[in-house]
Amino acid sequence: MRRFKGRYPGLGSLCAVALVIAAPRPGLADCGPARLEEVRLERVTPEGDLVLADTRRLRLAGLHLEPLSQEKTGSAPWPKPGDRIGIGLLDADRDRWSRLAAIVFAMPAGEPPVWLQHRLLEHGAALARPEPDLGDCWPLLTQAEAKVRGKLPDLQVEPGRFARISGRVSRLGDGRSAHFITVFGTTGERATGLIQKRHLKRFSEAGVDVAQLRGQFIRMRGVRSTTNASIIPLTSPDQIEIVR
C-alpha cells in the first residue's frame, strides 16, 4: 500500500528478519506494506489482541472485535501460539493499552500468507472499523465484511463506544460550524453524524457530497459522543458508506 511508505521507523535495522510477502490472494496485491517483520506469536487474548514472543502487544488495525461472542471468535481462523506471523505497523506510537496497530499476515507452513484481518471479516468474526493510514486496505476490508453483513447486526451502543448504523438519511442540518446528517437506522434508532466544516474538504475530495445525501441509504461508523450518544463525529470519508 502506497500510504505505508516511510512509516516504519528503524525498518532498515530489521532487514535480517523482514520478509517480502506476495499477495495472499488476487485483489490484495496493492494493499499492505511491501515488507513485513517476521515474529513469533505468544498468544491471542480474549479481546483479540496479539501478544508476541518479544512481549509486544498488537491490535488488528481496521477491525472492531468487541461485540463478538467467544463462540464465533473462537471458531475464526486465528494463528496459534508459536506460529510465525508477518506484521506491518501502521505507527510507532502505542495506544493507552500499550498496543501497536498492525496489518497482520498468518504464515502457515508451505502455504501462501493469509491476511488475518480480511479472513476474520470473511468469517463474520469482526466488523470493519475505519482509522488513519489504512489507505487502500480500507475498501478491501469493507468488501470482505459485505459478504456476511446480513449476519452481523448494527451496533447500538453506549456513549464513547464504536457504533455502526445503517439507514436512510432523513435530514441534513447546516450549523454555524458543522453539518449534521440524521439517519433512522434499520433497527429503529436515530443517529446523527456530525461533520465539522473544517473537515468538509476531505469528504468532497473523496467524492462524498454531503449536501446530496438526503434520502440516500448510508452506513455510518464511528465512536459515539460521550456527551450525546445520538451523535457520531465524522472526520473521515471512510466513516460514510453510500449503499444506495
The main β sheet shows up as:
6 strands, mixed
Judged by helices, strands and strand pairing, the structural class is: mainly beta
SSE string, helix = H, strand = E?
EEEEEHEEEHEHEEEHEEE
Unreliable spans are 1-29, 69-73
Helical fraction: 10-25%
- Would you count the extended β strands for me? 15
Count of helix runs:
4
- Strand order, biggest sheet? 14-12-11-10-13-15
Mean pLDDT: 81
Task: Give the overall silhouette.
Answer: elongated
Radius of gyration: 19 Å
Strand content: 25-35%
Distance between the termini: 28 Å
How would you describe this structure to a colleague?
With 244 residues, the chain is mostly beta strands. The chain is built from 4 helices and 15 strands. It has helices at 70-75, 116-122, 137-146, 200-205, and strands at 18-20, 35-44, 50-52, 57-60, 63-64, 84-89, 99-106, 114-115, 127-128, 162-174, 178-185, 190-196, 217-223, 231-233, 240-242. The strands form 3 sheets. A 6-stranded mixed β-sheet has the order 14-12-11-10-13-15, with no helix packed on it. Strands 2-3-4-7-6 form a 5-stranded mixed barrel. A two-stranded antiparallel sheet has the order 5-9. Strand 10 and strand 11 form a beta hairpin. Helix 2 runs parallel beside helix 3. It is elongated, with a radius of gyration of 19 Å. Residues 1-29 and 69-73 have low confidence and may be disordered.
Question: Topology of this structure?
Answer:
Elements: E1 18-20, E2 35-44, E3 50-52, E4 57-60, E5 63-64, H1 70-75, E6 84-89, E7 99-106, E8 114-115, H2 116-122, E9 127-128, H3 137-146, E10 162-174, E11 178-185, E12 190-196, H4 200-205, E13 217-223, E14 231-233, E15 240-242
Parallel strand pairs: 4-7, 12-14
Antiparallel strand pairs: 1-2, 2-3, 2-6, 3-4, 5-9, 6-7, 7-8, 10-11, 10-13, 11-12, 13-15
